[in-house]
Each structure stands twice: as structure tokens, then as C-alpha cells.
Amino acid sequence: MHVVLGQLDIAWEDPEANIRRVGEALRSLRPRRGSWVILPEMWATGFSMDPSRTCGEAARLATEAQRGWAMEFGGRVLGGIASQVEGKPMNRIVGHDASGREWLAFAKLHGFSPANEPAIYAPGSGVVVCDADDCRVAPFLCYDLRFPEVFREASALGADLMVVAANWPARRDRHWRALLVARAIENQAWVVGVNRAGADPHATYAGRSLVVDPTGVVRADLGEGERWLGLDIDITEAARWRAEFPAWKDRRPAGVRLTGGT
Asked: What digits encode the pLDDT tens for the residues 61-71?
């Protein structure tokens, strides 16, 4: 499969500018039919804690843009879009296919408490795994990366590709890289992490979007700044590596025992 990573320098709370920028980049790149275009968390607005700026008109415009690009280029577009779901604002990643259909939707499980996100955006109800193009994909958002148990759950459901869309600050960049590699190694799956670049009123972002193979080898690192990259990956490498080195079969449920004191 062919993945296209869009490492954007997101214009703060300006969906029209961001939609224009992504559209221009895609028309310049001309992704081949069947490609998966992956965009960062809240790519149309930046990581804003103002639902009136992220979940209303911005969400509508971003959704229409993703649907249009998927149809125009004959592939799949996955990107972070905050939106109202049953009256609640949620930070989500949504995917559209070449017919314009929404085929994937996942709401962030772990709100970023240092930014007060849990008080603003309702959490998702669980891990999502979807089949598409001979691939089983599990999407996640940013802070979810710090919680390996949800990736393990996706692995148990057969995910061979895990996508992480993020606004991950530069000051914790070494954590971003280490955790993406760890999630690939421990789950023997492809991991694609797409981060934003640039700065917003609250943080700077190093980018450093990565593609990591099921053995933990980094196949692509986009470095700093706004960049786009298309890369072929062989999704069957996950199954081959699991068969060759079946560590996943040896997993045992971890019991918890509290001890101490008399």
C-alpha cells in the first residue's frame, strides 16, 4: 500500500487557510490512486480547546474537504477533525474513501489533562479497528500513544497498521519517537505517526513524523518543518514477522497483587 504523510504547519483556528494549503499540496503531489493520505490531529484548526472554533463550521469544512480529496484522488484520506457527536464535542480521527463515504471514525480515548482537554472534549468509548484494502487499521490520537494497553487491544483484534495523528510538542520529541518505535516492536505492527510542525499560541512542534515497520526499524522520518512524503509499505510484513518471531503468542494476562505491611 502507498501512504502519504502530510506534516502540516497548521494555521491557528483558520480552517480555510489549512484546507487551501492541503489542497495545493495534494494537487502538486498527485497521489496515485489507492493511496492513503494521513493528516495530523485537528489539522484544520490546530489543537484548540475552543469547541466553537473546532466543532462547528470548521468541522463541516474539514469533513467536506477530506471527502472531496478522497474522491478527487481515488484513495483514502484520514485526518483529525474535532466535531459534535450526539451533542458532545469530541476530538476524533475520521477517514473517507474514494466514494466519499466515511469508513472510519475514532474518538480520542485519553484527553491531554495538562491542556484541560478532558473537561472540554468527551472521550471515545473504545478502540476502533477497520478493514480496508487488505489491511486492518487501528487509529489513535496523540496522547493515546502513551497508553500501550489500547495498542495491545488493537493488536489482539488483528491490527497490522496503527496510525497516530498528533499535535506533539517539540519539548517532548524524544518521547514521541521512542513510543512510536516501542508500539511497533511490542505489537509487531506497522506504526505511522503523523505530527504537525510549526507553532501555535501554546507550543512549538518539531514534526518528526515517522513510519516504523513491525520490527521497529524507522523507514521514514520527515524531520522538522512542513513536509509531505509518499512511501510504499508492504503490509504483509506484519504477518510474516509474527510468524517468524511469534512473541505475541507468548503474552500472558498480567495479574495485579498488592503486597506490603503486616
From this structure: 999 999 999 99
What is the pLDDT at residue 257? Answer: 66
pLDDT in tens, 200-224: 999 999 999 999 999 999 999 999 9
Confidence (pTM)? 0.96
Annotation marks residue 249 as catalytic: no
**Element containing residue 192 per DSSP (H, E):** strand 190-195
Q: Which of 13, 55, 117, 142 is catalytic?
A: 142
Structural domain boundaries in the chain: 2-246
Q: Which of 41, 55, 117, 135 is catalytic?
A: 41
DSSP assignment of 46-105? -S-S-HHHHSSHHHHHHHHHHHHHHHHHTSEEEEEEEEEETTEEEEEEEEE-TTS-EEEE
For every residue of 206-241, DSSP letters joined together read E---EEE-TTS-EEEE--SSSEEEEEE--TTHHHHH
Instruction: Tell me the pairing of strands 36-38 and 2-7.
Output: parallel
CA distance 184 to 51: 33
Q: Which of 13, 55, 108, 117 is catalytic?
A: 108
88 in active site = no
149 assigned to active site = no
Nearest-angstrom CA–CA distance, 160 and 131: 10
CATH number of 2-246: 3.60.110.10
> Which tens digits make up the pLDDT trace of 69-122?
999 999 999 999 999 999 999 999 999 999 999 999 999 999 999 999 999 999
